[in-house]
Predict the 3D structure of the following.
Amino acid sequence: RRAGIEAATISGTGSQNITIRRCVVDGIDATGEGTNAAADGIALVCCTAVVDTCVVRNIVPAGTGSGSCINAPACTNTFVINNFLSQGSVGLKVSGGGTAVYYRDNLTAGCATPFNISGGIDRGGNF
């Protein structure tokens, strides 16, 4: 209940390659998981990934936790392209010590913070 899709490297080196394409993630709710629990529609953890043409919406954290439609901590050479992100605390969150997350043509609605980016590269068309 805390992540719709979680993609994580097996080896811990970021060498795992993940492709998520044309999916719908709806209604992830961390209520009951703890007093303050985060929730992610798609979580990309220490991997190399492509997330393309997905709809991610209605992400509900518990308490003061954050609800991210797409959360990409410590990713390497990752592409987040043409996604529709709505009703989360954050639309796209990029953090950690990865090499780069490139993002382009993503549309957000109803997200308090549409893009929370540290280490990402905006390639345009994000709203």
Remarks:
- The longest strand covers residues 39-45.
